[in-house]
Amino acid sequence: MSGIQLTSNKSQADKLSAPWQILLNHKALRQWLFFLLVSTSAVAGISMMTHILKANGLTGLEVTLLVLFAIVFSWIVCAFWSAVIGFALQWLRIDPLSLKRSLALPEDSGAPTQRTAVVMPVYNEDTRRIMAGFETCLRQLAQTGHLAQFDMYMLSDTRNPQMAQAELDHWHAMQQRLGELGKHAFYRRREKNTERKVGNLKEFCQRFGYRYENMIVLDADSVMSGQAMLQLVHSMEQNPKVGLIQTVPIPVRQTTLFGRFLQFASELYCPMLATGLSFWQTDSANYWGHNAIIRMEAFMQHCGLPRLNGPAPFGGDILSHDFVEAALLRRAGWDVFLLTDVRGSFEEVPCNILDYATRDRRWVQGNIQHLGLLTGSGLHLTNRLHFLFGALAYISSLLWMLMLSLSSADALIRATTDNDYFNQTYQLFPNWQVAETGLINALLMCTVVLLMFPKVLGVLLALKQRREEFGGAGALLKGALAEALFALLIAPLMMVYHAFFVLSVFLGYQVSWNAQEREGRMLSWHEAFKRTALASCIAVVWAVVTYLFAPLMFWWMVPVFTGVILAAPIVRYSSSLELGRLARLHGLFISPSEAAEPQELKQLRLRLANMPQQPAQIAFTPMLPSEQWREMPTQSFDTLDTAEVLASVNR
Question: What is its main location (predicted)?
Fold first, then answer.
């Protein structure tokens, strides 16, 4: 059990428990420890690269290469140490927030005293899926026996008239099934979807926020168990300084080969990585936009987002709102935590590489926009790092691409240029070219360890604590090996996509934020070639030229060339439902949600199977509770209000 919920003693509900005091006392120490680990490792790697490049004198091209390497290597080191810390804490079963030994989660911590709204914003989604997920979550809450303290809202921004009518029809049919439970379910559709999801949630808070102390935000594909939602509410009640708690949503219900690969990798590595992040982020964690609980009053007072000045990519509406809302809450003195031990928090992910890349294209634009907020007034350093790291997660692909291009160019120049050993007028001895072979091999090995060792740690952790959840040790090891090879194969293709997306954002190209495809589908050869042909052709030319003039460089680049040249068949066959079925049949990529299906996922599956495709159309107007309008003050990143500063200090 997390340190965020350490006691159920009602007399202590209004004050922080001792572990929280310990957490705050150690916050700076933790962050300095993390900074020390990252900085010393990064400096060591950059020093090695500097010695390699300057052995024969640094050219302008090599200086550029060194700068790119420094950025990318530092980014890799950051992820590595987060994983190592997460591994150590999970291996020892130590909670990352309280630094206490984790305890078994109690089945029931009593009735919640605060009222909570569970909201699901939707936009042109698969109607049957969102209704099935919504109903599952509602019935899960009913099974806890505490539904009286909850209401659930479907907040529709759907623009398609046929889909909007289908939502109404399915909503009416669901209300008939729910009976008395339906009194806690509400449907509201906006006529104009201004400000996208941000505006959707903002309007809900302004109209109905006065009724609730907390708000659990779900995505259209989210599923949460009743116990998970109840645990979040109890955590908010027992820690009044907390403004937001983010859980770790795990992908489920994947049927294609690519989807099952993502699902398996997320279950195997994400909890460990999240634990490491939670350790050093402490009370300044991030918000991922869903499967999280938010204190309503804090959100309404401090998370009214402004429209940013200037043109894209840094101006306009704030696209990736979640990072910014977490930063604003922390600026106002509210704690934001990442709770890594909540079971029963699920989501769905795109089922093929092209849909996955399309989703990333939207995130690239939103995360790069955050670079313009790095100097925002009053923001905590950790939140500025969230903005920077979020952008680097995608910009690093462009930097990798530039590094590979410059390295190839340097190798080609050296291979096609005669060496000048006497480059001065009066010179007795020649300037021999120096090859730092030992340093090159050492740096290469260090980079491989930084990239691959976290995967090894994740497997060791699962073997020790959760092997049966992955179908046994054999299935776990088989899946981990296949995951590592497949990740190595598709990494160059994802690098190409992300590099292109980053360039397109900086060049001012906009992207529409539409509903993402989640259901499994086999891509056609036409789709696969259309989205990969140009990159594959460039890779073929690059490989041939490198092989002819710099064969040693070619062999180092073979893994990169292979993934991009074979992109079309990789994209098509990884989207195969049949290969996904065969993988499961032969015990490949078995995840815990398959080895022992959670009750909430079983209910969702059965509900989808039994739900009618097209319920009868009945003209009706869904009922909504009484509303009381309250404004959400628009925040500024240029100045910090004096009253807000005082409130932050007092809190």
Answer: membrane
State which amino acid sits at residue 584.
Answer: R
Cβ atoms within 10 Å, residue 200: 21
pLDDT of residue 515: 58
Candidates 608, 393, 455, 610; CA nearest to 518 is 608
Q: Are 197 and 120 in contact (CB under 8 A)?
A: no
Sheet of strand 223-224: strand arrangement = 223-224, 345-347, 250-251
Strands 214-217 and 292-295: antiparallel
HSE of 548, CA atoms in CB hemisphere, 13 A = 7
Higher pLDDT, 538 or 26: 538
**Residue reference for tokens 């202590």:** 12
Phi, psi for residue 4 in degrees, rounded to 5: -75, -15
Sheet containing strand 214-217, edge to edge, reads 185-189, 150-156, 116-122, 214-217, 292-295, 242-246, 335-338
- For residue 335, which of 381, 285, 378 has the smallest C-alpha distance? 285
The answer, yes or no, to whether residue 11 has pLDDT greater than 70, is no
**For residue 411, what pLDDT is reported?**
81
Question: What φ, ψ does residue 439 adopt, rounded to 5°?
Answer: -65, -40
The average pLDDT across 21-36 equals 75
**For 388-407, b where at least 16 C-beta lie within 10 A, e where not — what string?**
bbbbbbbbbbbbbbbbbebb
The answer, yes or no, to whether residue 80 has pLDDT greater than 50, is yes
Mapped onto helix, strand or coil, the DSSP state of residue 194 is coil
Range in 62-71, 130-139, 252-261, 624-633 with the lowest mean pLDDT: 62-71
Which tokens hold the place of 455?
């995967």
Q: Which residues of 545-579 are buried (b: 16+ CB within 10 A; e: fewer)?
A: ebeebbeebbeebeebbbbbbbbbebbbbbbbeeb
DSSP state of 151: E
Instruction: Decide if 525 contacts 572 (C-beta within 8 A).
Output: yes
SS3 of residue 540 by DSSP: helix
- Pick from 187-196, 230-239, 298-307, 495-504: least confident: 187-196
Distance between CA atoms of 77 and 96, rounded to whole angstroms?
A: 20
Identify the weakest region by mean pLDDT among 48-57, 113-122, 325-334. Answer: 48-57
**Does 24 score more than 50 pLDDT?**
no
Residue type at 464 in one-letter notation? K
